[in-house]
Structures are given as structure tokens and as C-alpha cells.
Amino acid sequence: MGEEKALAGLRVLDLANNIAGSYCGKLFADFGADVIKVEPPKDGNPLRKRVPFYKDEKDKEKSGMFFYLNTNKKSITLDITKKEGADVFKKLVKDANLIIEDFEPGKMKELGLSYDDLKQINPDLVMISITWFGQDGPYKDYKATNFTAYGLGGAMYVMRPTKWPDIRPAVLGGYQAEYTAGLIGYITSMAALAMGKSAWIDLSVMEAVTSTLTGIMGDYAYLGFYRRTLPWAIHGFPTQENYPCKDGYVNLTPGIGGTQAIAELIGKPEEKDNPLLVKAGARVKEPEKFEALILPWLKEHTKWEITEKAQKLRLAFAPILSPGELFDDPQLKEREFFAKVNHPEMDEVTYAGAPAKLSETPWKEGRAPLLGEHTKEVLSQAGYSEDEINALKEKGIV
Q: What is the DSSP letter of 283?
């Protein structure tokens, strides 16, 4: 396996304060780009204040969120809100390929660091600006969160809730709207860099969400309807597809049409001609009756016992794994998915590893940087002497 990394030779300046931009930068760093996290002096990036903290010790070097989103990056402290700091940043731009920023629209221009300003310094520069709603439009100045972007983007409306399919839209846990935007940001940035000429990418988190609604937008555009409460009814889903069992939950996909093998699964062969097992429409119409038939058996068996027996009967059942169970999952263990690294302030840290495996230019595991850990190194490379760096430090610029 080769040692060269896929993105070796690329330099990225990461100004992101939120999840989407930071995740975009993380993907560049993990695949070998030289990613420099530019953080405010003293307190550092806002993500350093986000939970969870290692051993619940609130410390800017112990944020689990910052760690995950900034693996393999370098950290410099630099106050770009001051003219002298902005001038230092412009020097760094000369050797950069990509800038990632997520300030509110107009902020970079206010600082004298707009795309047009920076393109004068580096004619081949690519810059991506990630905001909740984009650089223009009636929402551009609105504040938002992952929750509001998920709702406004349309994903929340078409989620299939469990017990209240008609009245309560649901949302995925975590920060899926922002991670989706970060992934799309990475893809579009790579496309712009591959083009080989300067570009400004305007990425809206809301639009990133809407663009990933599978065929749902097409359904409405072409046919005038939307899938909401029972999007998989053609496969005979009851309205609640995740069922409790002895040690958690299992996902049930009864299948298209008849699912008479369920009668054998639950040890009631006499039920094989029950309309609930013969006709998909019967299950969809009376899901409570289907639940009453199958739940007692499920609750007496573990998720893996159920899965193994069901799949032998060609029933597409699967266990619902918790985060803790993922660490012990044999598939992920075999593929060595989780990475372990040592951190100066947190000892050994385990985190989710490569999203894909490249045979010749592998992803690399690594830790997040300490605040300002690489300031002297990066500024020295940009031509600053030790005395000049110390002078900037005394002024609070770095």
C-alpha cells in the first residue's frame, strides 16, 4: 500500500466555525491535504466549546465534536477581524488552493477578504462559502440551526414517524443537515479544484438538504403528490417499522405482497393464511393487529436471534444498532473502521474512521490540533521571522 496521500500538495485555509464547513475541511485533511484551521486567539474556534467533553471536563482541548471535525488539521491563531490579522491571512492565501468559510453573507467583504479581494492575490483560488440559506434571497440574513434547516429543506416533512404518521413530522438525530452540507461542500470544492481555475462556491445548507430528498421532489413535480406518512406502503410496511425486541429494536421489512414466512418465524404455522401475512394492504390498513400478532414473539428474542432466523426465511429483517454496539460490530471490526490515536490532553481517543477506502492513497488517522499548535510553523513558512511572530502575539493578532 502506497504512502502518498490522495490530496497531498493541496493547501486549504479553514475558517469554518460550524459543523458543515469543518466537516468539509476534515475530509480534505484526512485524505492528505494540508488543512490549516484558522482560529481566534485565546478561546479558539467555537466548536471547542461544544459537548461532549472528554471525561466531562469542560476544556477547549477536550471537545469531542472539535476533535472529530478537525482531525489531521493544523491550528493557527489569527484575528482576521483586525486589519493586521487580515493582512497576515492574505499572505497565507498566496499559497492556498482552497478557502472554506461559513460567516454570514457579507462578512468576508466587510473584512476585506471577499472572493474578489482574494482572487487578486491568488488568481487560481477556489473559495467555498457555506451558509444556512445562501448569499442572496429573502432568507440570506436569517439565523438558523440544524433543526430549522432540516425543516425548511423539506426533509422533516417527509420523514416517516412511528406512532403519529399524520400529524407529527420527525427529524433525524444528530446534525444530519450540516453533515450533508459538508459532504456536498467537499464534492463541489473538489470539482472546482479539478477544473483548475478560480471559482467561488455558494453553498446553502437548506438547498443541500432539499437536493438529497431522493425522488420525493420528482414525485411532486411530475405527479403532484408527495410521500409522507406511508412512503413504503407498496412493500407492505406497517406504519411503525422499527419494533421492540428482548434487547433493543429490529427493523422489519415484511416484503412485497405476502409474507407468510412470518408465520413460521414466530412459531405459528396456523397463521400462514392470515390476511395480515398474505396481503400488504391488510397490514397497512390495520397495523395494530399486525403488531399484536408479532410483538409477543419479538419481545422474547434478541435482535440477532430474530435477524438470523428471519433471514434464513428470506425475510429482510435487521437489528437496530446503538452507537455502543457499533464499536463491537464484527463487520466494522473486520474492516478496522474505527481509528485510535493518542492526544496530549485526552490520552487515547477512538473515533469513526475513513468513509471510504482508497487502495493506493489511503486515508490517514490522526488527532485534532491543540489551539495554535502550528502558528509558528505556518507563519514561518509564510516568511515571518520569529521576532515578527512574537510581535504579532504581543498585539493579540495571533
A: H
On whether residue 237 sits in a domain, the answer given is yes
| Cβ atoms of residues 16 and 130 within 8 Å | yes
137 shares its domain with 205: yes
Please return the burial class of 326, using the count of CB atoms within 10 Å of its CB with bins 0-12, 13-18 and 19+: middle
pLDDT tens digits for range 168-185: 556 677 899 999 999 999
Separation CA 279–CA 27 (nearest Å): 46
Residues 209 and 242 in one domain: no
- Whether residue 381 is contained in a domain is answered as yes
Q: What is the CATH number of the domain that holds 381?
A: 3.40.50.10540
C-alpha cell read off for 362: 489511503
Residues 6+ apart with CB under 8 A from 383: 91
Q: Phi/psi zone of residue 143: left (φ > 0), alpha (ψ -120 to 50 degrees), beta? A: beta
- What is the Cα–Cα distance from 155 to 161, expressed in whole angstroms? 12
Residue 360 C-alpha cell reads as 493506493
Q: Which residues of 150-300 form beta strands (DSSP E)?
A: 199-204, 242-245, 248-253
Domain limits at 245? 233-320
Are 104 and 130 contained in the same domain? yes
Cβ neighbours of residue 277 under 8 Å, at least 6 residues apart?
A: 258, 259, 260, 262, 263, 271
> Rounded to two decimals, what is the model's pTM?
0.91
Which residue numbers in the chain have pLDDT < 50?
1-2, 164-165, 229-236, 238-239
Residue 217: per-residue pLDDT: 67
For residues 136 and 70, membership in a common domain is answered with yes
- How far is the first Cα of the chain from the last one, in angstroms, to the nearest whole number? 39
The pLDDT, as a whole number, for residue 287 is 79
Q: How many CB atoms lie within 10 A of CB 216?
A: 18
Which parts of 253-385 fold into alpha helices (H)?
261-265, 275-278, 280-285, 287-298, 303-312, 323-327, 330-334, 375-381
Coil, strand or helix: which one is 336? coil
